[in-house]
Specification:
The complex is a heterodimer of chains A (690) and B (171). Chain A has 690 residues and is α+β, with helices and mostly antiparallel strands. Chain A is built from 20 helices and 12 strands. Among the domains of chain A are: 169 residues, no CATH class; 176 residues, no CATH class; 107 residues, no CATH class. In chain A, strand 10 and strand 11 form a beta hairpin. Chain A is globular and about 75 Å long. The C terminus of chain A is likely disordered. Chain B has 2 domains: 81 residues, Cytochrome C biogenesis protein (Helicase, Ruva Protein, domain 3), CATH 1.10.8.640; 56 residues. In chain B, 61% of the residues lie in helices and 0% in strands. Chain B starts with a helix and ends with a helix. The C terminus of chain B is likely disordered. Classes of the chains: A alpha+beta (690), B mainly alpha (171). The interface between A and B is large, with 60 and 49 residues.
Chain lengths: 690, 171
C-alpha cells in the first residue's frame, strides 16, 4: 500500500514537471493544444496528491506502523479525530499537506478559469506548476512520508517491519482546534501562491487591461481570510493549551504567519489605488511577490532551526532547499519586472494630500513598517550572530514597544481613510465627518481616565477604537437613511440592503469593525492580574472579585492519557458562582504532559485557572489564576473579520431602484461619491467597489 | 537547661520548621522586591527547554508549569544582588558575563545591538520622507489634469496640448 502512495507522489512530480515545461512550450510555440494539455496536467496533479494523502491517512486509521512517519506521530489509543490531524504533525506530513492544499487550489483555479482568459491562464498554470515542482521534490526526495521502517534479518538483508504501536501524537496537538488551525493557516500560506501566479503571469505575458488585478485581489482576499482564521485560532490554541495566560508570544512561528498577512493586508488596500486611479502598479505587483516570498521565508525560518522557536516540531536541515527556492523566486521576479517594467507604467497623480489616495499611501507605509519591525526582530538574533559571533535574544518587550505605536497609528488610519474622498477632501468635509466621532472618542478617553485607567496605550486604543467605530456606524447610518427614505423601509432592512448593494465597501467596514474589537481585546492585557499559590484541599486564594476554594484533587484517565485534576469552587461575594476543573494530562505513549486550562470567559474578563502540578520543592499542588480582561473580544473580533471578508467576497446585489442624486449641501464630497457608487452598483452587477 | 529555656528553644525550633521555604533568603524591602521582579523579567531562563524570562518561567508541557530549578536559581541570584545594593546595570552585566548576551530577554541598547531598536524607527522614517516626496511629485505631475478632475469636460487632447505649451514656457 505504501508503494501506491510513493508512486502517486512520484507521478505527481512528473505530471507537474510536464505541466511546467509543456506550458512553456505551448506559450512559446503558441500551440493551443499544448497549452490545454499543460493545464489539464496541472489539474491532474490534484488527484495524484490526493491518492498519496489518502494512503497515508489509511495507514493512520488502520494502525499500520510500518511507516516511520505514522509510527512517530500516532498510536493505537489516539482518538480517530486526531489520527486525521496527525497527518500534519511532523515535517514530512505537513509538507505533503502543503502540496495537497496547493494542488487543490491549483485545481480550483484552473478548472474555474478553463474557458476564460486564454492568454493569461497558460502563464498562471506554468507558475503554479513551478511552485508544485519544488514542494513535490521535497515530498519525494527530501522529506518523504512513505519511508518504511526496516530491520536487518538473520541473512543480513533489510526487511520491512511494523511496530505494534506508535509513539503517539505530541500532546500539544491533541486539542480540537489543532484539527482546524493548521489547515486554515496552510490554506493561507498556499493560497498566496494563486495571487502570486496571476501577478507574475500578467507581468510575464503583459496581459492587457486590469482584469488580472481583480482576479488577484479576489484570491488574495480568500487566502488572507484563511490566514486570519489560522492566526486567530493559533492564538486561541496557545491561550487554552500552553497555560501561561497569554495568547501571543512573538515566537518566530507566530511572526512567520503574521508577515505575509501584513503585506497581503497592504495589498488589499493599495489595490484600490490601481483599480480606481491606475496608480501604484509596480508597488502592487511587488506586494504580491513579497507576500509569497514571505510565506516561503517564514517556512524557511521555522523549519530550518535558524531561529529558536517553541514550535520546533518540524525543524530539520531542509533550510537549504527553501533558501534556494527563495533565491530562484527572487531572481524570476526581478527578471520579470526588469523585462516588463514599462507594462506597469502608472498614471500617478495626486490631487491633494488630504485624500483617499494619500491615506492609502500612509496605510501601506505603516503596514510595511510593522512588517519590517516584525521581520527585523525575528531575524535580528541571526544577524547579530553573523556580525558579532554571539546570538542575542529578542523578546516580547521589543516587539511590543516597536509595534504598539505602529498599530495605534494604523487604527487611527482605519477610521480616517475610508471617509476621505478620492482626489480631495475639503476641510469642511473633514470637520463634518470627524468632529463627532473624534469628540466622543476624547470623551470616552476622559471618562476612562477619571475612572482610574492610566495605561497610555490602552487609553489611546480606547479613544481610537471609539472614534473608528463611530465613523463606521456613521457611514452605515448615512447610506441606510438614504435607502430607507427612498424605499420606505426600516433602518435595519436598509442597512442590509446597503451592505448587499456594495458588499466590498461595507464588508470592508465590517472587517474594520472586527479589527477594532481585536485591538480592544489586546489593550485589555494592560490590566491583567495573576496570582499563584500552593493550594491544599480546603484552602483558597483571591483574585479580583473571586475567591477560589480548592475542593478536591482526583486522577481520571483513559487509554490515551492519565490526568491529575483539581476541583475548584469559585465564589463571588460569598456566593458559589461556578466550578472549575483545571487538569494536567500525562500521555504515556510520548511521555509528555499537557495543561488543560479551566477558563470562565465573559465579555468583561476571563477567569483563567491552571493546575500547575505539584511544587518540586514541597510536593504541594500549585494553582495559578489569571484575571484577563476583554480577551473574548479578540475571538469575537476575529469572527467579525471573517464575516466581513466573506461579505466582501460576495457579488453586489442589483438594486431594485435607481437612487436619485443625494440632496444638497449636507453631503460633502465623500458622500456624493458614495451615492455615485450606489448608482454604479445598480447598473453593474458584481462590479467591485471599495 | 531550665524548663523555661527548653520551652523557648522548642518554640523557636518549631517556628523555624514551619517557616515557608525561602524565608532564610535575603529579606528585600518592597522597593527592592519590585526591582528584583523587574530584573528577573529581563533575564531569560537558561534551562534550554523554554524561551521564558526567568521571572515568568512557566515551562509549558513540562512536569510542572512553573519556574524550573534553573529559573529559581536565577531569581535567587537576582534577589541576592539586589539586596547587596548592586545596580541594575551591574546585575545584568554579571548575568551576561556568566551566560553570554543571549541571557538578556531583549537586545542591549548599545553597540551593534542598538541597531535592533533603531532600525524599526529609522527605516519607516526614511520611507515616510520618500513617500512624502513621491506624493509631492505626483501632486505636481499633472496640475491641469487635476483641475480637470473636477470639471471633467475638457477633452484630454486639449489638456495635453496646454500642458505641452506650459512645459515649453517653463525656463
Amino acid at each position: 500500500m505504501d508503494i501506491l502512495g510513493s508512486f502517486a507522489l512520484l507521478l505527481a512530480l512528473i505530471v507537474a514537471a510536464y505541466a511546467f515545461f509543456a506550458g512553456i512550450a505551448g506559450i512559446i510555440t503558441r500551440r493551443a493544444l499544448l497549452k490545454k494539455s499543460a493545464l489539464n496536467a496541472g489539474m491532474a496533479v490534484f488527484f495524484l496528491v490526493t491518492i498519496a494523502v489518502a494512503v497515508l491517512e489509511f495507514f493512520f486509521f488502520t494502525n499500520n506502523y510500518s511507516l516511520a512517519y505514522v509510527a512517530e506521530h500516532s498510536n493505537r489509543a489516539l482518538p480517530a479525530f486526531y489520527k486525521f490531524a496527525a497527518l500534519w504533525a511532523g515535517q514530512e506530513g505537513s509538507l505533503l499537506w502543503w502540496s495537497w492544499l496547493l494542488s487543490a487550489y491549483a485545481f480550483c483555479v484552473l478548472f474555474l478559469n478553463r474557458k476564460k482568459h486564454p492568454e493569461l491562464m497558460p502563464y498562471v498554470g506554468v507558475v503554479i506548476a513551478g511552485v508544485q515542482i519544488f514542494f513535490l521534490t521535497l515530498n519525494n526526495f527530501v522529506a518523504n512520508a512513505f519511508n518504511v521502517l526496516a530491520a536487518p534479518a538473520a541473512s543480513g538483508a533489510m526487511n520491512v517491519v511494523a511496530l505494534s504501536d506508535g509513539r503517539g501524537l505530541t500532546p500539544l496537538l491533541q486539542y480540537p482546534e489543532m484539527v482546524i488551525h493548521p489547515p486554515m493557516l496552510y490554506l493561507g500560506y498556499t493560497g498566496f501562491t494563486i495571487p502570486f501566479a496571476f501577478a507574475l503571469a500578467a507581468l510575464l505575458g503583459r496581459y492587457p487591461g486590469e482584469k488580472w488585478i481583480h482576479i488577484t485581489r479576489r484570491w488574495t482576499m480568500i487566502a488572507w481570510m484563511f490566514q486570519t482564521i489560522g492566526i486567530i485560532l493559533g492564538a486561541h490554541w496557545a491561550y487554552n493549551m500552553l497555560g501561561w495566560g497569554g495568547y501571543w508570544e512573538w515566537d518566530p512561528v507566530e511572526n512567520a504567519s503574521l508577515l505575509p498577512w501584513i503585506t497581503a493586508t497592504a495589498f488589499l488596500h493599495s489595490v484600490m489605488m490601481q483599480e480606481k486611479r491606475g496608480m501604484m502598479k509596480i508597488w502592487n505587483v511587488w506586494l504580491v511577490f513579497t507576500t509569497f516570498m514571505l510565506c516561503i521565508l517564514g517556512t524557511l525560518l521555522t523549519r530550518s532551526g535558524a531561529v529558536n522557536s517553541v514550535h520546533a516540531f518540524a525543524q530539520s536541515s531542509i533550510g537549504g532547499w527553501f533558501v534556494s527556492f527563495l533565491a530562484i523566486i527572487l531572481v524570476v521576479c526581478l527578471l520579470a519586472y526588469w523585462k516588463n517594467k514599462d507594462y506597469l507604467r502608472s498614471d500617478n497623480q495626486l490631487d491633494s494630500m488630504i485624500s483617499r489616495e494619500s491615506s492609502f499611501l500612509f496605510n501601506n507605509l505603516i503596514l510595511l513598517a510593522a512588517c519590517f519591525a516584525v521581520l527585523w526582530g525575528t531575524l535580528f538574533p541571526v544577524i547579530s550572530e553573523w556580525v558579532q559571533g554571539t546570538k542575542v535574544s529578542v523578546g516580547a518587550a521589543f516587539f511590543d514597544s516597536v509595534n504598539v505605536p505602529i498599530a495605534l497609528f494604523l487604527l487611527f488610519l482605519t477610521g480616517v481613510g475610508p471617509l476621505l474622498a478620492w482626489r480631495k477632501t475639503s476641510t469642511d468635509a473633514l470637520k463634518r465627518n470627524f468632529a463627532w466621532p473624534a469628540g466622543i472618542g476624547l470623551v470616552a478617553g476622559a471618562v476612562a481616565f477619571t475612572l482610574g485607567f492610566r495605561d497610555f496605550y490602552a487609553l489611546m486604543c480606547l479613544m481610537l477604537g471609539v472614534f473608528v467605530v463611530l465613523t463606521i456606524l456613521l457611514e452605515f447610518f448615512r447610506g441606510a437613511r438614504v435607502i430607507a427614505s427612498r424605499e420606505s423601509t426600516n433602518m435595519l432592512t436598509a442597512v442590509g440592503s446597503l451592505t448587499m448593494r456594495n458588499t466590498r465597501r461595507y464588508g470592508g467596514y465590517i472587517v474594520h469593525l472586527g479589527m477594532v474589537m481585536v485591538f480592544i481585546g489586546i489593550a485589555g492585557q494592560a490590566f491583567n492580574k495573576d496570582v499563584r499559590a500552593e493550594l491544599k484541599i480546603g484552602q483558597s486564594l483571591r483574585i479580583g472579585p473571586y475567591t477560589i476554594l480548592c475542593q478536591n484533587f482526583d486522577q481520571p484517565g483513559n487509554d490515551n492519557y492519565q490526568s491529575q485534576r483539581a476541583t475548584l469552587e469559585v465564589l463571588r461575594n460569598g456566593k458559589s458562582e461556578m466550578m472549575l476543573f483545571p487538569e494536567r494530562r500525562f500521555f504515556p505513549a510520548s511521555g509528555e504532559t499537557e495543561t488543560i486550562v479551566a477558563n470562565r470567559s465573559t465579555p468583561l474578563w476571563d477567569l483563567y485557572v491552571v493546575y500547575a502540578g505539584q511544587s518540586p520543592q514541597d510536593g504541594n499542588p500549585v494553582i495559578q489564576a489569571h484575571l484577563n480582561p476583554l480577551v473574548k473580544w479578540i475571538w469575537f473580533g476575529g469572527i467579525v473579520v471573517v464575516i466581513g471578508t466573506l461579505l466582501a467576497l460576495l457579488p453586489n446585489r442589483r438594486a431594485s431602484i435607481v437612487l436619485a442624486p443625494v440632496r444638497e449641501k449636507a453631503w460633502d464630497g465623500t458622500i456624493v461619491e458614495a451615492a455615485t457608487h450606489k448608482v454604479a452598483a445598480v447598473s453593474t452587477r458584481g462590479a467591485g467597489d471599495d | 537547661m531550665t524548663r523555661r529555656t527548653a520551652l523557648i528553644l522548642g518554640a523557636l525550633l518549631a517556628a523555624i520548621a514551619f517557616l515557608p521555604s525561602g524565608a532564610f533568603a535575603q529579606q528585600l524591602t518592597p522597593e527592592q522586591a519590585a526591582r528584583a521582579k523587574a530584573l528577573s523579567l529581563k533575564v531569560k531562563c537558561m534551562c534550554g527547554g523554554c524561551n521564558d524570562p526567568a521571572g515568568a518561567c512557566y515551562h509549558s508541557g513540562g512536569t510542572f508549569s512553573g519556574p524550573c530549578d534553573m529559573a529559581l536559581s536565577e531569581i535567587k541570584l537576582v534577589d541576592e544582588k539586589v539586596a547587596k545594593g548592586e545596580s541594575d546595570d551591574q546585575i545584568l552585566k554579571d548575568f551576561v558575563a556568566q551566560y553570554g548576551p543571549t541571557v538578556l530577554v531583549d537586545p542591549p541598547k548599545k553597540g551593534f545591538d542598538l541597531a535592533a531598536w533603531v532600525m524599526p524607527v529609522l527605516l519607516p522614517l526614511i520611507a515616510l520622507v520618500l513617500v512624502w516626496e513621491i506624493a509631492r511629485r505626483w501632486r505636481h505631475k499633472h496640475p491641469l489634469a487635476a483641475a480637470a478632475g473636477s470639471a471633467s469636460q475638457i477633452p484630454p487632447e486639449i489638456i495635453a496640448r496646454v500642458q505641452c505649451d506650459i512645459e515649453k514656457d517653463e525656463p
